[in-house]
Amino acid sequence: MTALIAWLGAGLITLGLMFFVAGTVGLLRFSPSINRLHALTKADTLGLGLVVMGLALQAPAVAVALKLVLIWSLALVSAALVSHLIGQSLCAQRRDP
Amino acid sequence: MIWLDLMLVGLILGLAWRCVHAIELMEAVVVFVALGMLVALAWARLQAPDAALAEAAIGAGLAGALLLATLRQLPAQAVRPQPLHWLWWGLWGLFGVTLLWAIGSILSTPVSLMPWVNTHLPEAGVSHPVTAVLLNFRALDTALELAVLLWAWMAQRALGESPDTSFHPVQGRVLATAVKALLPLMGLVAVYVLWRGSSAPGGAFQSGAVLAAAWLMLWLADLPGLDPRRWSVRLGWLGGVMVFFLVGLLGLVQGIGFMGYRPDQATGLILLIESAAALSIGLLLASMVLASLPGIKGRRA
Predict the structure, then answer these.
(1) Can you give the pLDDT at residue B298?
(2) Could you list the residue range(s) of the whole structural domain that residue B36 is in?
(3) Which end of chain B is more exposed for a tag (fewer CB within 10 A), N or C?
(4) Residues of chain B with pLDDT > 90: what percent?
């Protein structure tokens, strides 16, 4: 059972890392900033979420797993906030050049 | 693990080179922030979580914000790379060789002060060796660090005119609501990091950085924050250094010498100094960034 959970955790982390790689490639390759934001949120939300889920499965105690989830939720809030602010700044730039 | 460490070292050196060689200042700032995060990782790998926390919060976070805010005020221009005179190459080469030699001579004579710290830890008033060194055994160094921060802020105040550029306020209530929701959490983290500092990594500088971030977010969301014209804020700038030196004088009065604490009072005194220092550091760091930010268009005065 523990071996199965360890493998499941490793699989989730690997999947999360793939999202991070995809998000990074998108951030580097896409050109308008809105599209870059779109690529970045994949890494932030899904990538970090999967990594946290994988780590939480391997956590030694429930408290540690809950702390990891707390970190993820804080990252979610800040990612949404930052994306919103960058989007607003882009709109403002378009309005008055 | 050695491969990960070598990769980290390579990345740090590469980013440092890139930061110095960037033609666009914006790129240099972004690379500097990334460099700060990697240096924080390196500190963590060297098992110095105190330094890692401070580097991530202040070196990468607040210094990055300060640099970005300053960048907005500079006229848009790229730094033109100029060929260096051979004399400079020789001078800096000599400096580098001397530095390498100095580092080599350090490595050949390893002296650990850890046994000494551990034997005196019971009378230090705190159980975390780093805090014991910073606020008890070498308290004067920490007090001078605080004084340097205060001095930097005074110099910036003396130099700085408030910038006359301005930017649009944020539309909608997303930022304000998020800041209102996050502020209690940030206050909690700041107090926790300060309190934990006596027995585990943490302390005044880390706690002050969190406080500074909280204050900056208040300002950016256009919520009523701390007005730098208020006397309480001005006293807060000076508070850390003043409390530190007053406690130092107390030791002189008690006959233990400047900055000496009686072992039975050490815990309380260190906590007092750390609280005042964290507030001061938070106020000073936030004021530095705020002073270099342009005003918001049409905001209430």
Answers:
(1) 47
(2) 1-75
(3) C
(4) 27
Q: Which of B174, B181, B185 sits opposite A84 (nearest CB)?
A: B174
Residue B78: both structure tokens together? 């790229």
CA distance A2 to chain B (A): 25
Task: Specify the residue for token string 């964290």.
Answer: B278
Question: Residues B285-294, buried b or exposed e (16+ Cβ, 10 A)?
Answer: bbbbbbbbbe
pLDDT of residue B136: 81
Q: What confidence tens digit (pLDDT) does each residue in A43-94 have?
A: 888 999 999 999 999 888 899 999 999 999 999 998 888 888 888 888 877 7
Average pLDDT over residues B218-245: 83
Domain count, chain A: 1
**B178 CA: distance to closest CA in chain A (Å):** 8
B-side interface with A, Cβ within 8 Å? 167-168, 170-171, 174-175, 178, 181-182, 185
Bridge partners for B167 per DSSP: B296
Residue B80 lies in a domain: no
The residue segments making up the domain with residue A87 are 2-95
Asked whether the beta carbons of residue B182 and residue A88 sit closer than 8 angstroms, the reply is no
Residues B161 and B217 placed together within one structural domain of the fold: yes
CB contact under 8 A, A92 and B182: no
CB contacts < 8 A, A to B, total 15
Which of A74, A77, A85 lies at the smallest CB-CB distance from B170? A85
d(Cα A41, Cα A23) in Å, to the nearest integer? 7
Is residue B70 located within the same domain as residue B128? no
Are A77 and B182 an interchain contact pair (Cβ–Cβ within 8 Å)? yes
Number of domains composing chain B:
2
d(CA B188, CA B271): 17
* Predicted local confidence at residue B257, as pLDDT: 77
Across B17-26, b (16+ Cβ under 10 Å) vs e yields: ebbeebeebe
Question: Which of A28, A81, A91 to mutate against chain B (most B CBs within 10 Å)?
Answer: A81
Residue B97: inside a domain, yes or no? no
**Helices (H), strands (E): how many in chain A?**
4, 0
